[in-house]
Amino acid sequence: VNLQKYAIIVGGGSGARMGSELPKQFLTIGTKPILVHTIERFLSLEAMQIILVLPIMYFSNWDKLQQEYFSENKNIKLVKGGSTRFQSVKNGLLAIKATKGLVAVHDAVRPFVEISKIKESFVTAHSLGSAVLAVKSKDSLRKIGPLGSKVLDRENVVLIQTPQTFDLEKLLTAYKVEESTLFTDDASVFEASGFLVNLIEGSYSNIKITTPEDLDFAHVILSKSLKV
Amino acid sequence: VNLQKYAIIVGGGSGARMGSELPKQFLTIGTKPILVHTIERFLSLEAMQIILVLPIMYFSNWDKLQQEYFSENKNIKLVKGGSTRFQSVKNGLLAIKATKGLVAVHDAVRPFVEISKIKESFVTAHSLGSAVLAVKSKDSLRKIGPLGSKVLDRENVVLIQTPQTFDLEKLLTAYKVEESTLFTDDASVFEASGFLVNLIEGSYSNIKITTPEDLDFAHVILSKSLKV
User: Fold this and answer.
1) Residues of A in contact with B203 (CB under 8 A)
2) At A14, is the pLDDT very low, low, confident or very high (cuts 50, 70, 90)?
3) Are residues A171 and A103 in contact, defined by beta-carbon separation less than 8 angstroms?
């Protein structure tokens, strides 16, 4: 893919769910903060511009990490987060001056995404306009309605991960829509504008670290991946 | 709950997915096989009869565990598994001589179900006829159809766990239905007969151990729970 590549890395949250003062993306697994692991994976692609979206109260935390881990790197731009994920991603998009290119949106707290999957998402988004990582549910699923719950055919339902990678111009168009509570990710914003969401296979180790159990699991995944 | 309680513990599989000769339920976490952890949790309830369903080729593995961990216990009945989960549960049900009582169906490879949740499932099934553990999805969800995928409102979708506990007479009736590939669990069999499936809150640590990553995570959950 010869187009300019952007990655909006979204870090939100106050860390309340972790029982910790510090937001999850600043917690350390192995020897480095989660956010550093995440950014390093994206920076291993060529022609990659990172737009890091963080709550303004944590800008000073980032400054220290920038100096320690990325002091030579001019390809990371820091942007103020919004009051919702939608607003944060929108702020990230507004910080991109171009309209041509490809843009991945990724959770700061998903440090284990394989580099090969990031690359695949850009290649697919280049040819098809979008590429969203998804995995099959291992559990049975039920849909809750006004008259109780009903079984959902799990063969036809997928769990959505990030990165979610798009043609930049299309995602810019999509994010002009009015915000809705149905927008739980970028794919749902993208399809609300009539664009087609293309799924690619994610992986079960690409976890989102949101609970203390997730953090425990993250330590295990990291120690296993170092042994490989 | 004064009614007789039954628990059908279903252990299937050849262990192929684990990259191991031995099926998952016989793998050790902490000091004991997964299956022993699971059965012990159910035996902590009073008036509990266990029906253990295993592939016949693993009966000798069970015999050793029975002698080592449950030699004094007369409340565990061993039953031959079928070619599908549906057939295995049906075999378990046929081994119950009574028609009155309550029956939980539980995956052998879910050793971390809280005892309080097992109790709650029996209390709820006693009053409402069924109780199925479920948790909210932490991920966004999409439904795959012939024209591509569409967002599913994750507020209205739950991931289903076990135990799934039922009025015995109703579950016996339900299992007279012809088997269908849509039956991924007992709740889906139960509702196919027109019975109402009642959901209760599960927990994220009640994992089903099916992959090597799950087994790693299981070690973490166990070591944490021992510290509490």
Assistant:
1) none
2) low
3) yes
Nearest residue, CB atoms, A134 vs list B138, B142, B185: B142
Q: Which of residues 78-137 of A touch B (CB under 8 A)?
A: 132, 134, 137
Which tokens hold the place of B181?
């590939």
C-alpha span between A61 and A52 (Å, rounded): 13
Beta bridge partners of B160: A140, B134
pLDDT at B225: 74
Instruction: Write out A54-77 in H/E/C secondary structure.
Output: ECHHHHHHHHHHHHHHCCCCCCEE
- Provide, as residue numbers in chain B, all residues whose Cβ is less than 8 Å from the Cβ of A138: 208, 210
Give which of A184, A120, A148 is closest to B142, Cα–Cα: A184
- A vs B, Cβ pairs < 8 A, gives 124
Beta-strand relationship, A130-136 and A157-167:
antiparallel
Task: Give the three-state DSSP class for B114.
Answer: coil
Q: Is A145 on the interface with B (CB under 8 A)?
A: yes
List all residues 6 or more positions away from A35 whose beta carbon is below 8 Å from its beta carbon.
A9, A11, A25, A26, A52, A62, A65, A108, A111
Which residue is listed with tokens 């997928």?
A158
Q: Can the peptide bond before residue A111 be classed as cis, meaning omega within 30 degrees of 0?
A: no
Q: Name chain B contacts of A160, Cβ cutoff 8 Å.
A: 139-142
CA atoms within 13 A on the CB side of A70: 25
pLDDT, tens only, B88-117 = 999 999 999 999 999 999 999 999 999 999
Burial class (CB in 10 A: 0-12, 13-18, 19+), A56: exposed
Place of tokens 């590429």: A131
Residue A20 CB neighbour total at 10 angstroms: 14
Interface test mutation site (partner B, options A135, A183, A184, max chain B beta carbons within 10 A): A184
- Element at B85 (helix H, strand E): helix B85-94
Strands (DSSP E) found in chain A: 5-10, 28-29, 32-33, 48-54, 76-80, 102-107, 130-136, 140-145, 148-152, 157-167, 199-201
Token pair 């809705």 in the structure block, residue? A180
Query: Residue B94: what residue type?
Result: L
Between CA A106 and CA A160 the distance in angstroms is 12
Residue pair A34/A108 in contact by the 8 Å Cβ criterion: yes
The pTM score is 0.86
Per the document, the length of chain B is 228
